[in-house]
Amino acid sequence: MIENRTVAAIIVAAGSSTRMGFDKLMYDLDGQTVLEKSLQAFDMHPAIDELVVVVGENAEKAELLIRKVHKPVRLVRGGATRALSVQNGLAEIKADFVAVHDAARPFVSQAVITAALNAAFRMGAAAPAVPVKDTVKVIGADGMVKYTPDRSGLYAVQTPQCFRTDLYRKALRAVSNGDVTDDCSILEMAGVPVQLTQGDYANHKITTREDLPAKREERQMRVGHGYDVHRLVEERKLILGGVEIPFEKGLLGHSDADVLTHAVMDALLGAAALGDIGHLFPDNDPSYEGADSIELLKKVKEVLDEQGWRAENLDATILCQAPKLAPHIAAMRENLAGALGLDVQAVSVKATTEEKLGFTGAGEGIAAHCVCLLERRGTRL
């Protein structure tokens, strides 16, 4: 066992990503690129002293990413094959041990790295692996099955593959490595035993689009509050929630003065931070004189739709001493729900008196409050 041993990580990132159709190592995974996540895993590991990143055409982008690495790190140009790329990286290190990792395995855990390194410290060569879960068939050139190997002895090898550096270099001198797809094969060909350690099925390699993690739905939610009040006057219709209610007075306003619907619109616009109804429908614009507020609510929905927002539910309260509103509540709910494309069960309308207190209690006007919940959905990795 080497005392005060040093360890270098070679991150192989020189592939062309031809099967992906784009540079998979620069693909965004929840705010970090594939390469960035792989670098971070080894930058964080306490046993790693330095990193060497083997790059290809992505060198310029990789140069920007390695600035976030805290440990000594440098870039090396890759070769025509994976084996040659690793050799280029190996030529740049002086550490006692080397951990060779495919940058396309961004989900490697600290535990997997530790287990492979500890085995390499003891045995000289080690790699993480997981049991093969599917039945494997060996076929001939004609596509016909030749035989089925015993699955119990089959393992899928992962990275990092870890070695004593001088042992790896000696193996390289002893064998031809042009066709190998992993580093352990080189040592196996040289007669060096390799210890397999506990891998992780999550430590899979991103090779095709199907290997990318499924996108998850992102939900952004906002709460809004709206309030409106209008004076009761004679010779005006009383309209609340789009319902004309028989009464001796009506509400004064530029539009139909539907105080309930106005409170609903203000709650929705406020939740989306889109101002208020006065901004959207100015009271000095003659085109809105006597306007049907339910129709205006439909326009508010269109504005929300453009921003990706959808109302999830409303809870409104009307403050009114008279007339009695209970017989009309159901129709109000249906009108509001219809304008917003909601199930009526998502719309609550309540009415209350104020025990003859204040201007509403004195019958001078009617006020309304509304609280709403908006949701905007998208997708992310």
TrEMBL record:
It catalyses: 4-CDP-2-C-methyl-D-erythritol 2-phosphate = 2-C-methyl-D-erythritol 2,4-cyclic diphosphate + CMP; 2-C-methyl-D-erythritol 4-phosphate + CTP + H(+) = 4-CDP-2-C-methyl-D-erythritol + diphosphate. Its cofactor is a divalent metal cation. PROSITE patterns: ISPF (PS01350). The keyword Cell cycle does not apply. The record marks R151, K205 as: Positions MEP for the nucleophilic attack. Pfam families: IspD (PF01128), YgbB (PF02542). Pathway: Isoprenoid biosynthesis; isopentenyl diphosphate biosynthesis via DXP pathway; isopentenyl diphosphate from 1-deoxy-D-xylulose 5-phosphate: step 4/6; Isoprenoid biosynthesis; isopentenyl diphosphate biosynthesis via DXP pathway; isopentenyl diphosphate from 1-deoxy-D-xylulose 5-phosphate: step 2/6. Residues 1-222 are annotated as: 2-C-methyl-D-erythritol 4-phosphate cytidylyltransferase. It comes from the Bacteria. CDD domains: CDP-ME_synthetase, MECDP_synthase. The record marks R19, K24, H254, T353 as: Transition state stabilizer. Residues 221-374 form the 2-C-methyl-D-erythritol 2,4-cyclodiphosphate synthase domain. Bifunctional enzyme that catalyzes the formation of 4-diphosphocytidyl-2-C-methyl-D-erythritol from CTP and 2-C-methyl-D-erythritol 4-phosphate (MEP) (IspD), and catalyzes the conversion of 4-diphosphocytidyl-2-C-methyl-D-erythritol 2-phosphate (CDP-ME2P) to 2-C-methyl-D-erythritol 2,4-cyclodiphosphate (ME-CPP) with a corresponding release of cytidine 5-monophosphate (CMP) (IspF). In the C-terminal section; belongs to the IspF family. This is Bifunctional enzyme IspD/IspF. It comes from Ruthenibacterium intestinale. The lineage of its organism: Bacteria, Bacillati, Bacillota, Clostridia, Eubacteriales.
